[in-house]
Amino acid sequence: MKATGHILVVDDQKEICEVVQQYLSSEGYRVSVANDGGGMRKVMAQGPVDLVILDLMLPGEDGLTLARQLREESTVGIIILTGRGETVDRIIGLEMGADDYLPKPFHLRELLARVKSVLRRASSRAQKETPTGARARARFAGWHLDLATRELVSPEGGEVRLTTGEFDLLAAFVNNANQVLSRDRLLDLARNREAGPFDRTIDVQVGRLRRKLEPDPAKPTIIKTVRGTGYIFTPTVEVL
Questions:
Q1: 104 C-beta neighbours (distance < 10 Å), count
Q2: Which of 37, 38, 176, 190 could form a disulfide with 169 if both were Cys (CB 3.0 to 4.6 A apart)?
Q3: Is the dihedral of CA 216, 91, 147, 236 positive or negative?
Q4: What ranges do the domains of the chain cover?
Q5: Which CATH number is 6-122 given?
Q6: CATH number corresponding to 127-239
Q7: Is the per-residue pLDDT at 125 higher than 50?
Q8: What is the pLDDT of residue 136?
């Protein structure tokens, strides 16, 4: 079976590492494991990693610290694993740039679905190819977005780095400008999955985008909240 990406599982529970490694390997992925931050960095120093499945509760450096370091240093995909009830840590993990999360205990098939989604969005092929019907390049409110190269340039001419999740959400907004979009619809457009009853993924990512796009994130003019419904991307979008 052809390998489809290199996944690094970081969890201090060796049983979980073994089960996940066996399952994802059977699905064609190359899978490495580490039990702490030092082990994670050792694996990543040995070669490219496409996705890190990162437990929040680790000995020494916790998962939130490692997620922040990963995002500062790379655009690698990150799925965080959280214990039941760790809602605050889950939200903080998303704010630090994780692409998705999965609460423990989890079903392996659900993990596989999340892995496929993040890798599909983060793959080099997706970065070089524009989906059918999508705008290749767009301009809005002085900003320039290239959907093929996934580059965002500010009105001042500086490049602004986006995580995979931030880019996919912004692309969904740009391709559906001036339409009121519910959180469920945005999650489907940006992540190709349905929202859970307490899923705040979209709200967190909108907050991150506002901090990068808006002159005053507290008074947004580009991504506006439609109370009780969702969000609307208000600028006129020009296709270039």
A1: 15
A2: 190
A3: negative
A4: 6-122, 127-239
A5: 3.40.50.2300
A6: 1.10.10.10
A7: no
A8: 81
